[in-house]
Amino acid sequence: MNTAQPKHEQEATAEQALPAVQEAVAAFPRGLMQPEGSYRFGLDALLLAAFAAASISSLPRYRTAAGGAFAAADLGTGCGVVAAGLALQLPALHCLAFEKEAPLAHAAELNMARLGLSARVRVHKADLAQPTSLALVGKNSLDAVLMNPPYRLATAGRPSPSPLRQGALTGAAATLEIFARAAAALLKHHAPCYAVFAASGLPRLIAAFSTAGLGLRRILPVYAREGQDAKLLLVQAAKGAQHDLHCESPLLLYSAAQSMAYSAQAQAFCPWL
Length: 273
Description:
Number of strands: 11
Shape: globular
Strand content: 15-25%
Oligomer: single chain
Distance between the termini: 41 Å
Number of helices: 10
Structural class: alpha/beta
CATH topology: Rossmann fold
Low-confidence stretches: 1-5, 164-169
Mean pLDDT: 88
CATH class: Alpha Beta
């Protein structure tokens, strides 16, 4: 019987043997480098990573992947928190993290090194609006794509004095469409796309995904507390599929009306709360 570890497991074991890496992994997501003036990652990013990891781990394509053969991308990775969370949960996965802002891309690279993930998460400084940005991967080549695009239109609300923060929070009318088209170009046929978006922006999300050929399959509404309106949506779509939407029971983040303690449901859903 061959009891040797697959190569990707050997690499992961070697990386995590370092005490500093073990400490960083145990502390995740605390301690991540985030450039001055940038948007600080939030709960939405962690929920997206947990949502996608749980779904991907159940896919036959992932369960049979060996040697890091399951390939994913994180579009607009920022400091890399979504890509890192995904890779920490899924040791057979390799991820390409796209980020157009140089300070954020550099921070993401440093964070992957700190977490021992550099061999499995590559940061690619690229603007998704430029067709050449996707050439590194190749069309129709990925098993999954994740995205946490800006929720607000650039014309809404008061702009932030920090360009990095403003770029993370708001986008032009075409920004969501750019993310959706990039996901569709990169994905294999019927491969999943995972997104987190503002609940109020659902019509825009449906329109962008429809135009890109991404069929909605699941929506998980996220509520802060019972009795309040949903603020976020966790969404799963599939490339080249028709809309066949299943709206799941909501995720309630907090245990009581005035409490800041996370609910048991939320803690079971996301390991980093």
